[in-house]
Design goal:
63% of the residues lie in helices and 4% in strands. The radius of gyration is 31 Å and the shape is elongated. It comes from Laccaria bicolor (strain S238N-H82 / ATCC MYA-4686). One of its GO terms (biological process) is 'de novo' AMP biosynthetic process.
Length: 484
């Protein structure tokens, strides 16, 4: 396998965004290596090492690899069995004035690990933008259906009413926590910097004739040139692989959120209350032409499980790094890190596509409420009778008997719930007959759900999306179209 092929992943081929696919592409990786070598050379020259302006210019003019340079690197790696040295040689062919100082004092992890930290930070930024757009779309959905009553479920059994919008806020709240977690881990990321072969900076101390201050300044200069606020104070040959575990943790948590949302949508699709977008020419089943399978939500669940598992991989890799390093992390991380970000990217874009085309069926929702509400309304009926001077125990017994008769109609005969008709026909309830319709109004059973939606969107979502980063992402998010 050629050098530049070792960084490719099949996930990027169809569904991942162009920016996330490019982030983990060979072109981006080796461009970043060259930029890191240039930053090192600039800092070393600034601190007194004899590096010519021409060397820096040639390096700066050749940061992007041509197809011919990829071929040279592939041949070199096959010969040298070392990817970094293959690219040191390749860079030197187009920047001959710098050939002798490229990678000066550094170990391979100077470029591989520092580049990975750059990719992790940029990848988190992409995910933060996508997540902001998703939250915005779902928030619009929640606002639209803030007061549409729907049957709530506990244990997937009929429970008190809620609203379609209130249920959506439960999804959004978890996504807000994911947004917070992604921002925290991104903003906490540091740089490996220039630390040498085992983290002691011995090679750089030799370059600067034992001047500790210059070595510290070199580390600081390269860190700032590379766009980081700080470098980790101590490292081994690598940055601690615990960082990878820390980064993948919020991605895994995002996967859990996405899986829950998509599962709810799949269950609602079965109930025919809410469906994901379904194209006019889309085929749900090769055999059953009538089917409208929730394929996109199923895809989210499938990929989310993979995303959650990848965190375990990072934890295991972190736990088995011997002393200053081993190499059994390398091939593993080249797969795990890109896949985690590409998977999260696809999950978010698919969820956004779903959220932008959710179809709600109010009449189906109302019919299901009508099937269950009579039983839920019995307490209201009893209280109304008591207010009219009736006896609570007597009213309770009347309702109990009628409820059992109605339940028999539903469960044993497969008929509709006729409890309300039975109440209307019973003279005992004549004192409240004029109130019966209002006692059964679904809107009277949703509590403060609409007000909770309003307060949540105003008090939590709006502030969370108010920063420029999120606002720009929302404006530029557009409508996501996916292959089904």
């Amino acid at each position: 396998m050629e050098a530049f092929e070792t960084y490719q992943t099949p996930l990027s081929s169809r569904y991942a965004s162009k920016e996330m696919s490019y982030l983990f592409s060979p072109a981006k990786r080796f461009y970043t290596w060259r930029k890191l070598w240039l930053n090192l050379a600039r800092a070393e020259k600034q601190l007194g090492l004899p590096i010519s302006d021409e060397a820096l210019k040639q390096m700066e003019d050749n940061l992007h690899l041509t197809p011919e340079q990829f071929e040279i690197a592939a041949v070199e790696e096959k010969k040298r069995r070392h990817d970094v040295m293959a690219h040191v040689h390749t860079f030197g062919t187009v920047a001959p004035a710098a050939a002798g100082i490229i990678h000066l004092g550094a170990t391979s992890c100077y470029v591989t690990d520092n580049a990975d930290l750059i990719f992790l930070r940029e990848g988190l930024t992409f995910l933060i933008r996508s997540l902001s757009a998703l939250i915005s779309r779902l928030s619009a959905f929640a606002a639209q259906y803030r007061d549409l009553p729907t049957l709530g479920f506990t244990h997937f059994q009929p429970a008190q009413l809620t609203t379609v919008g209130k249920r959506a806020t439960l999804w959004i709240q978890e996504l807000l926590w994911d947004l917070r977690n992604l921002k925290r881990v991104r903003d906490d990321l540091g740089f490996r910097g220039v630390k040498g072969t085992t983290g002691t900076q011995a090679s750089f101390l030799a370059l600067f004739d034992g001047d500790h201050d210059k070595v510290e300044e070199l580390d600081s200069l390269v860190t700032k040139l590379s766009g980081f606020e700080y470098a980790y104070p101590v490292t081994s040959q690598t940055y601690s692989r615990k960082i990878d575990a820390d980064v993948l943790a919020p991605l895994a948590s995002l996967g859990a959120t996405a899986h829950k949302i998509a599962t709810d949508i799949r269950l609602l699709a079965n109930l025919k209350e809410i469906e994901e977008p379904f194209e006019s020419t889309q085929i749900g089943s090769s055999a059953m032409a009538y089917k409208r399978n929730p394929m996109r939500s199923e895809r989210v669940c499938s990929l989310s499980r993979h995303l959650m598992v990848l965190h375990q991989n990072a934890l295991m890799t972190s736990s088995v790094q011997w002393f200053e390093r081993t190499l059994d992390d390398s091939a593993n991380r080249r797969i795990t890190l890109p896949e985690a970000f590409l998977t999260a990217d696809i999950v978010l874009s698919t969820l956004q596509n779903i959220s932008e085309g959710l179809v709600v069926y109010p009449k189906v929702i109302a019919r299901r409420i009508a099937q269950e509400l009579p039983f839920m309304a019995t307490e209201n009926v009893i209280m109304a009778i008591v207010k009219k001077g009736g006896d609570r125990q007597e009213a309770h017994e009347k309702i109990r008997v009628l409820s059992h008769e109605a339940a028999h109609q539903v469960k044993q005969l497969g008929l509709e719930n006729d409890l309300i008709d039975r109440i209307r026909k019973d003279a005992y309830f004549d004192p409240i007959m004029a109130e019966l319709d209002s006692l059964l109004d679904p809107a009277s059973f949703i509590g403060r759900a609409p007000e909770q939606v309003d307060a949540f969107l105003k008090g939590w979502v709006v502030p969370a999306l108010a920063d420029k980063e999120s606002a720009d992402a929302i404006r530029g998010g557009g409508k996501v179209e996916l292959a089904v």
